[in-house]
# Entry
Amino acid sequence: MKFYKPTSAGRRDGSVIEYKKKLTSTKSEPHKRLAHGKRSTGGRNNQGRTTNFYRGGGEKRLYREVDFRYDKKGVPARVETIEYDPNRSGFIALVLYRDGERRYVLAPQGLNKGDEMLTAEDAKPKIGNRLPLSAIPVGAFVYNVEVKPGKGAQLARSAGNYAEVVAHDGAYTLVKLPSTEIRKVLGTAWASIGAVSNEEYRLVDLGKAGRARGRGQRPKNRGSARNAVDHPHGGGEGRSPRGHRRQRTRQGRPTGKGQKTRSPKKYSNPFIVERRKPGRLMRNGGK
# Structure
C-alpha cells in the first residue's frame, strides 16, 4: 500500500495499491483477442429505467474475457502475465495452454509469472490448480467455486476472498463461504485451490470524491434527508425519526440492522447448513 502525503484536502488519508510490485506489467493494453468494448449501463435497464441507483459516469473500460468455466481439462497452462482488470477487484492472469491457446483466468495469491496451472480430476491440490470438490482435502482454501457442475465459477471471486472446505458428506461437500455461511455443494462441482489475489483491495481509501466518480460511483445521500415521496425515511421537520421500527430500502423492503432479507422460499435454502453471522460477527470472519 502507498499512502499519500497530505499535500491537499483531497490527498489527505488517500491510499493506493502499488501495482508495480504486484503485476508483471503495468501496461493498460490487454491481449487483443481477449478484449472488446463494453458499454456502461449507468444502472439502467433495457427500458431506460434506473434499477441500480448511484451508478453512472466513470472511465471507459475494455472488457477482458475471463474464463470461469475452465473447460480445457487435462491441458497444462503456463502463466505469461499478471495484469490489472478494471472490471473486477482481483488481478487476472494471461495463461498459455500447451496446445497454443491463450485465456484470461482469475489470479490467486502467490501465483507468479512462469508458474503452471492444471485443470484435471487427478491434479495436485496446489495454488492455481482446479479439481472437483470431492478431491480437495478438508481444510483447503478454494476460490472460483461452482454451484452447479459445468456452469462455471460463481462463488468466492472477489479480491482477497476464499472459501474453506469443511467436510465431505456423501455426494456433497460442505463449504464455508466468505460470508461465514456453510452450505452443501455437489462434490462433482469444481473449484480452484488458493485465495483470490489483490487482498489489499479492501484497505484502499479513495480519499476524495473524484476517484469514486472515476469508478462510476455517484453520490449517495441518506434516506432521512429526502422528501417523504422519495424515501420511506424521508419527510418531517429537522432530524425526524424514521417513524417505523424496521429500517427500509427506497422500495420499502427491510434492510440492515441484522434483519433477515432472504426469501423464505428460495430454492437453495435446503443446501444451507449454517446461516451467515450478521453484522460484527460476519466482518470478523465469525470470530
User: Anything to note?
Assistant: The CA atoms of residues 104 and 151 lie 17 Å apart. The mean pLDDT is 92.
